[in-house]
Amino acid sequence: MPGYLTKQESVPIAGVDNLLIRSLRDRQQFSDPLGVAERLGISSAAWPIFGLLWPSGAQLAARMALRPLRTNERVLEIGCGLGLASLVCHRRGIDVTASDCHPLANPFLLENLQLNALPPMKYRTGQWGKAAAAEEEAPPLDSAVQGQFDLIMGSDVLYERDARATLAGFIDCHAGADAQIWIVDPNRGNRSAFHKQMAAHGFEVTEERLDHPVRGDLPAYKGRLLVYQRKP
Question: Which pTM does this prediction carry?
């Protein structure tokens, strides 16, 4: 892949077979020759974040590996990055759509589908915050996230302050009446504010600690699973 270096590894996910994942070699990678990422508000320092493997992504993937299958359920992953949880869902036959705003998220997802001999999977551009404000880079309607879903999931998406509550608004727009929202948060510090923003849209939250020590090949982890659902 031109402009940056990648690596390929077998990624363990509790409860299912490993996934072969191609990712960026490290956080020093950057390639934005046409300035597309810059116009979306993605700085050179933030550029590689989408293409790295993050502990919270593995936590979400492990939860989706064990979640009971539900007939006709539609699942959306927001801020998918390399899309571990989406790949796990897709391999299980779940109707899942991966979404991200990074211009290279979809090419990396296509590569990882091929590495794991998986059929094509739905991908859409999902934007909120700075990315959504860049109107000149707004995706065509047929490539943007559309409609409502029964489960919206994300990992480590509360990494910055969101004073305008753009993420909560995005979720509310795409959550069905009885939808659940699953967010794996590694105790970033923006959780309380997000609770209030979701409450403004009628969502209640329950929290589950995901703390665990080293388990075989799996590193120690500290964080929480936040589950939101609209009040009855």
Answer: 0.93
Residue 1 lies in a domain: no
Q: What are the beta bridge partners of residue 183?
A: 154, 226
Per-residue pLDDT tens digits for 4-45: 999 999 999 988 999 999 999 999 999 999 999 998 889 999
Write out the residue range of the structural domain in which residue 16 sits.
6-230
156 torsion bin: left (phi>0), alpha (psi -120 to 50), beta (else): left
Question: What's the rounded Cα separation, in Å, for the pair 42 and 52?
Answer: 15
Q: What total of structural domains would you count in the chain?
A: 1
Sign of CA dihedral 138, 61, 24, 44: positive
d(CA 122, CA 133): 24
CA distance linking residue 213 with residue 222, whole number of Å: 9
**pLDDT surpassing 60 at residue 131:** no
Where residue 171 sits, what CATH number does that domain have? Answer: 3.40.50.150
d(CA 185, CA 199): 17
Question: Quick one: how far is CA 227 from the chain centroid?
Answer: 15
Residue 95 domain flag: yes
